[in-house]
Amino acid sequence: MGFQSVPFDKKSIDDILEKSGIPLGTASIREMNRIINTIEKQLNVRYIRMEFGIPGLPVNPIAIEAEIEALRNNLAHIYPPFDGIPLLKEATKDFIKAFMNFDVPSHCCVPTNGSMQGGFISMGLAGRRFPERDTILFLDPGFPVNKLQCKVWGYGNDSIDLYDHRGDKLLKAVEERFATGKIGGIMYNSPNNPSWVVLKEYELEGIGKLCSRYRVMAIEDLAYFGMDFRHDYGIPHQPPYQPTVAHYTDQYIVLISSSKMFSYAGQRIAMAIISPNLFNETSKNLLTYFGTDNLGHAFVHGGMYPMTSGVSHSSQYGLAALLRASVNGQYKFTDFVREYERRAKGMKKAFLNNGFTLVYDNDLGEPLADGFYFTVAYPGRDGCRLLEELVYYGVSAISLVTTGSSRTEGIRACVSLTKMEDIPELTYRLETFHHEH
Amino acid sequence: MGFQSVPFDKKSIDDILEKSGIPLGTASIREMNRIINTIEKQLNVRYIRMEFGIPGLPVNPIAIEAEIEALRNNLAHIYPPFDGIPLLKEATKDFIKAFMNFDVPSHCCVPTNGSMQGGFISMGLAGRRFPERDTILFLDPGFPVNKLQCKVWGYGNDSIDLYDHRGDKLLKAVEERFATGKIGGIMYNSPNNPSWVVLKEYELEGIGKLCSRYRVMAIEDLAYFGMDFRHDYGIPHQPPYQPTVAHYTDQYIVLISSSKMFSYAGQRIAMAIISPNLFNETSKNLLTYFGTDNLGHAFVHGGMYPMTSGVSHSSQYGLAALLRASVNGQYKFTDFVREYERRAKGMKKAFLNNGFTLVYDNDLGEPLADGFYFTVAYPGRDGCRLLEELVYYGVSAISLVTTGSSRTEGIRACVSLTKMEDIPELTYRLETFHHEH
After folding, report:
1. Quick check: B194 and B169 in contact, CB under 8 A?
2. Which residues, 6+ apart, have CB-to-CB distance to A195 below 8 Å?
3. B71/A67 Cβ within 8 A
4. What is each CA distance from A99 to A151, A319, B20, in whole angstroms?
5. Of all helices (H) and strands (E), which one includes residue A32?
6. How many angstroms separate the CA atoms of A331 and A334, rounded?
7. Are A380 and A390 in contact (CB under 8 A)?
């Protein structure tokens, strides 16, 4: 089959690791990336790269052509409106109705420079809406940068691990935290990075009701919109709809990233959907920091304006075209990303057949969905040591510890860069690893 | 000549103003904009629009074609590096050498989503570099949103008015503030929005030395790079060079906006040039907020990453192409924006011939340059009342009060939306105004 023989030269790899000075077990995604690049180059080998959560599929030409048209139409010299171009706001409103089945006026749909910016501003508002409520609660494991955002704001953070908190136990833990009176916002993503567990309707309903009761902002990061492939969320105006806390509370800001669902990561654009009630809310505490006491105005004129003055004009046209084509049924985004499901199935099989187990293996009784990420462990090793051993076998990932997980035995695998034709080679490498351990 | 007769219908205008509920004298740029749009539409009239500082010229096709090529080359699905693409960083380094005559390594040149983001992050770092130094000092009048940025960070602000502080008096005032030990950064733009005064080399040198002595960060916003048209700063590798505090201190972050100099406002991209010494500096206080004690790392991984994860991939190629073409002498950006000088000359003449005077009229003994903005007053009226009267005569601007100026008699005029062929109509309107007052 012409596979590269593993293990690779351990001595050379050890030299590179030592020189880097970074222990693999605690390396960030970017650090891991740099180390593996170096090994690949110096040893002339190719890794199965599972550390990096970047989209591996090209964006649809619908977006590219719309951007090019906007550029040719002389928009590059005109400041975009801080709250987004009407075309995009309208398309978003229609998209929300078609795929999430709720109504929101277009002025509540605001483009941001990636969901990163949407999350940053939402968190900023959540922590300053009420005095003393400047702690953000995270459902872990999660995206480590969200906790960094919290730090930048100078807020506190608290977390609940989904591994041992699901269903009523999760809701009980959330309520306990809310009851302290210190929580301004709760942030989570579902499907979850890195575990790929998906919150049930029952859990979203419970969280939503608690947010309403305690007036805590739900910051729902739908980075993987429509990507729980156990259900087809991609048919406009037809159930099933993408689950969301917005069905159960008026305390939400829902973040819809274009990076994964549309593979549009390079142009840095996402949508923040702000509950109309929140949008109209006034709070004196906001005035001190955002120059206005109105929450919607604070998002746009106290957030988007002083932070970036809006989002690149041409990419707003690109995203508007993708959303509109999805609503019209002209483009089925769930079919496009379903490629990740096929990869996850194949890759998980290669792991599970060779002594590995899933860490987050239980989705409240249901088998876990196949998607962008999964988590694995190998008997008798913690995640750090596992990474250090796998690296000789040409397989790279990140340890779960860096995602805030309490499961120190695990590692996170991202499927996006592994093509279907690479899976036999992954299988051979894991077989060899398993045989030698 | 077919000019629209002025004054316009006062009754209708009064009705619109009353309905808006916003007193013109304190209206922000955006509010003024909305009111004038309404009047234009309802009365079917056209204003000489001087309220809005937006570029009135189209961006050069060099940028557009480079963006389109990047989009066609499949970059839209790939996350841009948080610290910018090497092509852009290298072009910036060369641009700095060619037009500002100083050396900076390319890793210190970081693209941001507009200078707005560069200023926001710089200010964030300036206020947290040292404990207790969380006040930003502004040279006023200035861009009001910079003060809003300060609020968002939760910092204090202080200011010195350039109207009565120039030369040694300015430096003395700056030193007095620095000596309090509370100032983390000093922020200014030169040429100055709105007064169009330009800091002299002598003043920049003094500020630079004070920044070094007191370790205060100089945040120099060169929004109008090369646009002091009394000098030709647009010939690569030849004096005169764009003046900058970077010649006099290692405590600088210089912000180079593409919005005005290249008319590239729509794509939200600028460059932050971070002093290599600052870039390498470590400070324990930064660690608490930005996840790293290194200032350069804090800018990129504690700022750009958690706020927007970088800048739109295609616009990085667009800006790189403009910078490279400028360095190569293929594109002379100062000739392009010199159009604003011609407009300013004509428009100022129309004002000065009809009883108006310049407010900021003295550039330390030199006559003021003609550029993007100027400031005027009319005898016996404060700026608010002047705006309210001019609005009947089809002329819109903003009051100087909203820019932090102590000169309550003045208004700010931006030349960018008034074409050369509109100047006779402006002249007729001001003549009529003057005649009737």
Report:
1. no
2. A141, A162, A163, A359, A360, A373, A374, A375, A405
3. yes
4. 34, 16, 38
5. helix A29-43
6. 9
7. no
Task: Identify which of B375, B48, B366 has the alpha carbon closest to the alpha carbon of residue B198.
Answer: B366
Give me the amino acid identity at A345: K
**Contact predicate A383/A401, CB 8 Å:** yes
Residues 96-155 of B with CB under 8 A from A: 113-114, 116-117, 120, 124, 145, 148-149, 151-152, 154
Report the SS3 class of residue B214.
helix
How far, in Å, CA of B272 to CA of A320, rounded?
30
- Separation CA A225–CA A319 (nearest Å): 15
- Report the chain B residue with the minimal C-alpha distance to residue A263: B77
**Identity of the residue in A267, A301, A302 whose CB atom sits nearest the CB atom of B314:** A267
Tokens matching residue A84: 């987004």
CB < 8 Å to B116, chain A: 305-309
Whole-Å CA distances, A153 to A223, A230, A244, A257, B328 = 22, 37, 26, 22, 42
**Domains, in order of start, for chain A:** 10-46+338-436 (3.90.1150.100), 61-327 (3.40.640.10)
Residues B204-233 pLDDT 10s: 999 999 999 999 999 999 999 999 999 999
Q: Which of B244, B248, B266 is nearest to B256 (CA)?
A: B244
pTM score, two decimals? 0.96
Residue A257 pairs in a beta bridge with A270
B30, amino acid identity = R
CB atoms within 10 A of CB B338: 18
Q: What is the pLDDT of residues A276-321, one digit of tens each?
A: 999 999 999 999 999 999 999 999 999 999 999 999 999 999 999 9
Instruction: Kindly identify which residue of chain B lies nearest to residue A76, measuring between CA atoms.
Output: B266
Contact call for B291 and A54, based on CB within 8 A: no
Write phi, then psi, for B266 (nearest 5 degrees). Answer: -70, -25
Q: Number of CB pairs < 8 Å for A and B? A: 182
